[in-house]
Amino acid sequence: MTIAIIGGTGPQGQGLALRFAIAGVPVALGSRDGARAAEIAAELTARLPQGAAPITGHDNVAATAAAEEMVVLAVPFAAHDATLKALKPHLAGKILVDIVVPLSPDDPKKVAMPPEGSATEAAQALLGPEIPVVGALHNVSAKTLGTLEWRINCDILVCGNSLDARRKVMALVRKLGVEAYNAGDAQAARCIEAITPILIRINISKDVPFSHAGLRIWAPDH
C-alpha cells in the first residue's frame, strides 16, 4: 500500500519515508517542487537497505494521487492550511494523517494553537467530515527517525473523529515497530500536540543528560 508524505522533503518527512520504506511500505514523497522531491527521494533511496520498498518523488498533487489511502501531512504549521486547501479536491476517498504541531513561531518550546483547538481539528474543519483526519506521530524526534541505527524510542498516540480511520492509522504506525494507542477523538490532539514543545524543552535542557527523548506508555508492574 503506497502512502504519500506531503512535506516529505523536511527532516520529519524524510525520516518517516525512510522508516516506512524499510518497513516495506512504498512512499510517494510530495513537495511543492516535484523536481526537488525527486532529488530527495533519490538521496533517501541510496540510504535504504536491500529489500526496502521504493521511495519516489512528486509534486504534492501527484504524490496524493499515488497514495492508495493514507496521506501524511508533514509541512510546517505556517503552510498547514494553505497546503490542505490546495489538496482538498484530491483527498476524496483517502485518510489524512496530520502530524503537524503548531509550535509558536517565537518559541518552539511553546504551542500557538489555532482557533479550532489543534492542528488536527483545524484540518478536519477545513476538509469537512467526508475526509477523515487522524492526528498521529506528533511526538517523534526527526533526528531519531532519520538515524536508522537508532530504534524509535516512543509510543504513538492516535486521535481522530473516525474510529475506523484511527484503527487503520494505528495498523500503519505499528509497521514501524512501535506501539500505537487509541487516544480518542480529534479534540485529544489539543493535549497530544502540546506534548511536543515539552519534549523539546526537556531535550535541549542542560540539566538533562540525554536528548531526542520520546513519550512511552508504561504498564503497571502488578
Automatic annotation (TrEMBL):
NCBIfam families: npdG. The keyword Oxidoreductase applies. This is Reduced coenzyme F420:NADP oxidoreductase. InterPro entries: NAD(P)-bd_dom_sf (IPR036291), NpdG (IPR010185), P5C_Rdtase_cat_N (IPR028939), STEAP_metalloreductase (IPR051267). SUPFAM superfamilies: NAD(P)-binding Rossmann-fold domains (SSF51735). GO terms for cellular component: plasma membrane. PANTHER family: DUDULIN-RELATED, F420-DEPENDENT NADP REDUCTASE. GO terms for biological process: copper ion import; NADPH regeneration. Residues 2-102 form the Pyrroline-5-carboxylate reductase catalytic N-terminal domain. It is an enzyme of class 1 (oxidoreductase). Its EC number is 1.6.99.-. It comes from the Bacteria. Keywords: Oxidoreductase. GO terms for molecular function: coenzyme F420 binding; cupric reductase (NADH) activity; ferric-chelate reductase (NADPH) activity; NADP binding; oxidoreductase activity, acting on NAD(P)H.
